[in-house]
Design a protein that fits this description.
Length: 421
């Protein structure tokens, strides 16, 4: 394993987010601190006959409201996942102060992941195919449904000609994208990376398919209390949509252009359970190794972690397994370190979840506030750690460990640290 001092340092200079709690980072963050749930009955389509009728929708989002990012023709043509991504990218790049020029464009890359891609385009094309025939399917279907198109369109819109690809690892995608962008900069293949995740799965086929896995909450009569990570009465996750991106940068590059540095990324671990398509390995063995690898790469010990942003999906198996993994890695310290689940309020953004939680990790460091895990009313004996139940706490946070785990056994851990020159 490489020493943490043999590669360029990687810092965060920009944050962007479009989520069920807000159309930008600040609104999302303030609602998280207030303990607001973004869940509601689905308004996007008729859910008659569906066992699940709730989700965390991005509300009041109008792509036409961002003419400097998406022109009117593109706003009508692009799939929702691309629209959400471009708006989040614009916010992150704007905050970073990055100016793209002929001299630096080849050194600015993009890694944006998604669990599914343009599912809305797939749904629309399938409906059209069945009702009107193949010649009526939109010519934009292919470019809208491809999972790499959010990354591709960010490059096209902002003129970024460096390394560019899409990463797919289910619910670990967002953290993997941040981690791989971190490694790209460390190995010298880019000076700057726009990294994160996007998801727009709220379609009839998406809702029906994920419900059939048995992992979704059916608490339709009480949407805002449906996502209840680590609670004894949890019955599954609540699906969500959104996009979140971070601008990562070689420290020397950031210093040279006088950028405001928000935080530093110091560790990244990735493993697979090699166990089951949708269930985590018993005892959290893959998650244990993942956290340990991230800590080793960062040159840190468990006692150096001030806060854990948990994967915390509100499913029976995940929450128990993550708790076991944290105990295995942290020992007695597991009972002292504050932990919370962003998904208790935002729901599960699937491939974008880890990216949003990366933004939350940076904001936690900057503001010294740890958002709560809401709806934690009945303690589960198998989940007995400090999950910051139902209220924000204030404390100095220098180092955050963020976990993401996905179907297929994928595990990703990213460690963020307060920047010190």
């Amino acid at each position: 394993m490489d020493s943490p001092h043999t590669h360029p340092r990687v810092v965060v200079t920009g944050l962007g987010a479009v989520t069920p709690l807000g159309l930008n980072v600040d609104t999302t963050w303030q609602n998280l601190l207030r303990g607001v749930s973004g869940a509601s009955l689905i308004s996007r389509f008729d859910t008659t006959g569906f066992a699940v009728r709730i989700a965390n929708e991005v509300k009041d989002f109008d792509p036409m409201a961002y003419p400097d990012v998406i022109d009117r023709k593109e706003a009508r043509r692009f799939d929702r996942i691309i629209q959400l991504t471009l708006v989040a990218a614009a916010e992150a790049i704007r905050q970073s102060g990055l100016k793209v020029t002929a001299d630096n464009t080849d050194e600015i890359g993009v890694v944006i992941g998604t669990g599914i891609g343009g599912l809305g385009a797939v749904q629309e094309a399938a409906d059209t195919l069945h009702s009107k025939g193949p010649m009526r399917v939109s010519p934009y279907t292919a470019t809208n449904m491809l999972p790499n198109m959010p990354a591709g369109q960010v490059a096209i819109t902002f003129g970024l000609r460096g390394i560019n690809y899409c990463l797919i690892s289910a619910c670990a995608t967002g953290s993997h994208a941040i981690g791989e962008a971190f490694e790209i900069i460390r190995r010298g293949d880019a000076q700057v990376m726009v990294a994160g995740g996007a998801e727009a799965p709220l379609t009839p086929i998406g809702l029906a398919a994920f419900h059939r896995t048995g992992a979704m909450s059916t608490r339709n009569d009480d949407p805002q209390r449906a996502s209840r990570p680590f609670d004894k009465d949890r019955d599954g996750f609540v699906m969500a949509e959104g996009a979140s991106l971070l601008v990562l940068e070689n420290l020397e590059s950031a210093r040279a252009r006088g950028a405001t540095i928000l935080a530093e990324i110091v560790g990244y671990g990735a493993t697979d359970d090699a166990y089951h398509a949708s269930a985590p390995a018993e005892g959290g063995v893959g998650a244990i190794k993942c956290m340990q690898r991230a800590l080793k790469k960062a040159g840190l010990q468990p006692g150096d972690i001030d806060y854990i942003n948990a994967h915390g999906t509100s499913t029976t198996l995940n929450d128990k397994g993550e708790t076991q993994a944290i105990k295995a890695v942290f020992g007695d310290l597991a009972y002292q370190v504050p932990i919370s689940s962003t998904k208790s309020m935002l729901g599960h953004l699937l491939g974008a979840a880890g990216a949003v939680e990366g933004v939350v990790s940076v904001k936690t460091i900057l503001e010294g506030k740890i958002h709560p895990t809401i709806n934690l009313m009945t303690p589960d004996p198998d989940c007995d750690l400090n999950y910051t139940p139902n209220g924000t706490i204030e404390r100095n946070v220098d180092v955050v460990l963020s976990n993401s785990f996905g179907f297929g056994g994928h595990n990703a851990t990213v460690i963020f640290k307060k920047y010190a020159s």
